[in-house]
Prior knowledge:
- The chain is of the alpha/beta class.
- It folds into three domains: 4-71, Orthogonal Bundle (Arc Repressor Mutant, subunit A), CATH 1.10.10; 74-180 and 318-348, Rossmann fold, CATH 3.40.50.2300; 182-314, 3-Layer(aba) Sandwich (Rossmann fold), CATH 3.40.50.
- The protein contains twelve helices and 14 strands.
- Helix 10 (247-258) crosses helix 11.
Amino acid sequence: MERKKDQVYGQLKRAIMDETLPPGSRLPTEIRLARSLAVGQVTLRSALARLEAEGLVERIRSRGTFVTERSRRRTFLLIQPDGTETLETPSRYIAAGLEEEAEKRSVTLEVCPESLFVAFTPGERREVVRTRSISGVILETGHRRIPPNVAAAVRELGLPTVIPHGLRGDASAGFFVLRTDEKKAFSNAFLYLKKHGHRRIASLFLQMPEENPGELRGFSRGELDAFLASNGLASARRYIAAVPNVREAIREQIAAWFGSSEPPTAILCHSDRIAMRVYGILREMALRVPDDVSVMGYSNYPGGQLLTPPLTTVDTRLRECARLAIGKLFESGNWFADASAPREAFTPCLLIERGSVAGPGKDNG
């Protein structure tokens, strides 16, 4: 059951956030306010102390308690790509994290589909900014290249703009970009498999021309080949594959690997969704995870923890990306007007160990 002081704190905070108690207004005296809320003064003081610690009210001796200007609710425009309901896209998970952080920071998110945003005239977009008091933009790209018309329309607003989960090169558009260091994340995944004794590690990537053409999670083919060789891992090009996101293409590649004289002992997948498909294909081929082959994913999408065995993966911390994006807008005074300020930062990753990785069998080392 919620404690009385928490209820009072929540009631007063809501009144401040929706400006029933507007910035600059003075609260009633403690005696009157406690009476109107039907609580004791000790309970009220505890709630006021929390509000003061958050910078929402200021208590001035001999004058009273005032709602601060800092309490004014900020409004950010969230532009989302169409189709964010798709499980494969990070956008739905970014959106959930943004809503969570917005609630914590008392931020209003005005959500607009990308197609609608670009369909507006410049005048209509300016009117949206004016009437909704928008002070910043969150441009969720679906982890794909920003269409030029979208980038141009956002720049016209003249507002600080953050991309929560972008790609290398996105900062050239003038926005602040948060992105995963994919090369580092996949390097750590390869080294993790090496630590478990694997040397023949197959890497199964998707062909993603809408992201970085020719790149394999931050690597070029030559860079990946060199990285594997420098770490004592089998660097034969046959263990590196980029395939379309089609089950039959994935199955053909896995069959080719396991039809060779030296099949891989582990498969590192482009994403958890691909790893889930790999599980099914291996089962059809009567290959067991991890007894016959270890499998590792990337992204930590929901469902991987429910596989048998649960999927070892790299968590790209999408909710943390969302939290950092809103934080960057609050800090936009440090970077927006300064052309020399950094416009890019890496977001954290976390390797999650589950049951899909084990040492290679004695005949497969």
